[in-house]
Design a protein that fits this description.
GO terms for molecular function: ATP binding; phosphorelay sensor kinase activity. With 406 residues, the protein is of the alpha+beta class. Helix content is 62%, strand content 12%. Strands 2-4-5-7-6 form a five-stranded mixed β-sheet, with helices on one face. It is elongated and about 135 Å long.
Length: 406
């Protein structure tokens, strides 16, 4: 904590101590002044009368004895007589000093407690806040009244409560995600496996099926097996990406040639779904440093996703541009739009837009999550938007700089 010394608790204690001392001195001075006034008001006349009586007595005694004194000799004798008649001893002084000290201690303590009572009140608030937080109410916030050490403690307690609340929420979210993961994996594994078992049972009945039907069932079982294999591969891949077990084998890649090659590989899929495709760029070359195999997998997932969910739009478009040393690749399909509520979750594992879990379009639910992981490993970004201009997945990668080593 780096606060001004003038805002610290220690400075306030010193200040209030000095103020208490000043108030004590002033109070005692006022008290003794009042006593002095009362003493002289009530005892002044008696003192004068006593002086006169002593003087007359001395004078009369001397005259009776035939002795005559001048005025100065008479005054000396009067003062001597007064001192003998009103003695002020050391015991009296000790009593006065003792009373002054006791009164000073009492006054100083009283003033100090009054001036510092806010500290006690604030400590009670902090203690109450700690009790509430310890009971599980992490939304409680302790008021921060000032910038001293107590305010610092209160701010740290508030921060601690927020951190604990966040940890609990993350733990609950992690538990929910784990349960969702288990449910999704179980569903995606069971569905093709059930189909495979069912068709193989039908094929095993040799007497009721014709060879053509058996061949058809075998082909269906094989396609389901391939889907099951793809799911298992994606599960292993996503696990490896999540735990950082994948190392990049970097090399220079020309993204113009790279995209053209990928589109050639997907030509049969475009034909199967009766989709047209086009690739637009004004660049002759656009180099990045990347792992070619992993990058191919990421863009293959994006293109495959565009084919499956964009078949109603009859077209898929890819575009490559360069913006501020960034290579931007967009993949656009014109199929059914993605609701806005689903866009923020589209890259989550096993997340699927409502209605997408079908035999035709339902993939593993890991393709976009894997694509995002791969792009992130390359220091790039991937974003999505879906409106009346189509559903667009946009990838940004750093352009290869001159002199950059592979």
């Amino acid at each position: 904590m780096k606060n001004s010394i003038f805002k610290s608790f220690r400075f306030e204690i010193v200040l209030y101590s000095l103020l208490s001392l000043v108030y004590t001195i002033l109070s005692e001075a006022a008290l003794f002044f009042c006593i002095y006034l009362v003493y002289h008001t009530l005892g002044g006349g008696e003192t004068k009368l006593l002086n006169g009586q002593v003087g007359n007595s001395v004078n009369n005694n001397l005259m009776d004895n035939g002795v005559s004194l001048n005025r100065y000799q008479l005054n000396d004798m009067q003062n001597s007589a007064m001192n003998q008649s009103l003695p002020v001893g050391k015991g009296f002084i000790f009593v006065v000093v003792s009373i002054a000290l006791i009164a000073g201690v009492v006054l100083f303590t009283t003033y100090f407690l009054l001036l510092t009572r806010k500290f006690g009140t604030y400590l009670e608030k902090i203690a109450g806040g700690i009790s509430v937080i310890s009971s599980g109410d992490f939304d409680t916030q302790i008021d921060i009244n000032n910038d001293d050490e107590f305010g610092f403690i209160a701010s740290k307690l508030n921060q601690m409560a927020e951190d604990i609340k966040l940890l609990i929420e993350n733990e609950r979210k992690s538990e929910y995600t784990k349960n969702e993961l288990i449910t999704s994996v179980a569903h995606d594994l069971r569905t093709p496996l059930t189909s495979i078992i069912g068709y193989l049972e039908l094929v095993s009945d040799k007497d009721k099926l014709t060879p053509e039907v058996k061949q058809h069932y075998v082909e269906i079982a094989y396609s389901k097996s391939k889907r099951l294999e793809k799911l298992i591969e994606d599960l292993f891949a996503y696990t490896n990406f999540s735990f950082g077990e994948v190392t990049l084998e970097l090399s220079e890649i020309d993204m113009v040639k790279f995209i053209n090659q990928l589109l050639d590989e997907f030509y049969p899929s475009f034909q199967e779904y009766e989709l047209e495709y086009e690739f637009n760029t004004n660049l002759t070359t656009a180099s990045v440093i990347a792992d070619g195999n992993l990058l191919a997998r990421a863009f293959a997932n994006l293109i495959s996703n565009a084919i499956k969910y964009g078949k109603d739009g009859k077209s898929v478009k890819l575009k490559l541009t360069k913006v501020d040393n960034k290579i931007i690749v967009s993949v656009t399909n014109y199929g059914k739009l993605i609701p806005q509520k689903d866009l923020q979750n589209i890259f989550e594992r096993f997340y699927r837009v409502e209605g997408s879990r079908s035999s035709e379009t339902g993939g593993t639910g890991l393709g976009l999550a894997i694509a995002k992981s791969i792009i992130g490993m390359h220091g790039g970004t991937i974003n999505v938007r879906s409106d009346f201009e189509g559903t667009v997945f946009e990838v940004a990668l750093d352009e290869k700089k001159e002199g950059m080593e592979r």
